[in-house]
Amino acid sequence: MLDRPSSATGYTVADLLAMDDIEGVRFELHEGMLLVVPPPLSEHQEAESDLQFYLRSQRRRVYANVGVMVDDVNYRIPDLVVLKKGEVLVPKVYQQPPSIIDIAIEIVSPTSRTQDRMIKPLVYARVGIPQYWLVEELSGERIVIMHELQGGKYVRTGETSVKEMVGED
C-alpha cells in the first residue's frame, strides 16, 4: 500500500523504505516524486547478465539492484554497480554510499529512456560516481557508451558492443 508522503514537498527516502513491498515492482525517488520502475524485458536481462559475466571476468565486484544514497528526496537503483577496488557493500542497509561505487550502469529500456539518458547521469555525477555506462540498442546490437566524470560532468570516453566485451562474434 502506498501511504501519503510525509512531506509537503513529496516522498522522502524514509517514506519509501517504510512502504510495504509490492512484488515485481521497484520504486525510485526523484526530487520527492515516486517513480515506478517496471520489471526489465528479457533483452534487458540478457544484457545485464552479459555485463555481469564480463565484469566478473575482469575480477570486478558487480551487483544488480543496489540502492544508492543520494539525499533525503532522491533514491536511485542502477541496473548494475561496480565497486571501487577494495570496497565492499555495506551490510544490512538499503542505500549504499556512492563513495564505494566506481561505475553506475543503466540499460536503456523503452520506459526508461529519459531517466537513463538525461536525469540519472546528472544525479550520479552530483554524488561523484566516477564512471557512467549507458547501454543502448543500436541497429539491433547492444552498445555500451562509457563516460567518465570530469569537472562535475560525464564526458563520453568510448563505446563498444556487449558482444565484443563478452567475446561473442
What's the SSE blueprint?
Blueprint: H1 13-18, E1 26-30, E2 33-37, H2 42-57, E3 62-64, E4 68-71, E5 74-76, E6 80-83, E7 101-107, H3 113-126, E8 131-138, E9 141-150, E10 153-161, H4 162-166
Parallel strand pairs: 7-8
Antiparallel strand pairs: 1-2, 3-6, 4-5, 6-7, 8-9, 9-10
Question: What do these coordinates show?
Answer:
- The chain is an alpha+beta fold and 169 residues long.
- Strand 8 (131-138) and strand 9 form a beta hairpin.
- The longest helix is centred in the first third of the chain and has 16 residues, at 42-57.
- It starts with 12 loop residues before the first helix and ends with a helix.
- The chain is globular, with a radius of gyration of 16 Å.
- The chain has a single domain, classed as Alpha-Beta Complex (tt1808, chain A).
- The protein has helices at residues 13-18, 42-57, 113-126, 162-166, and strands at residues 26-30, 33-37, 62-64, 68-71, 74-76, 80-83, 101-107, 131-138, 141-150, 153-161.
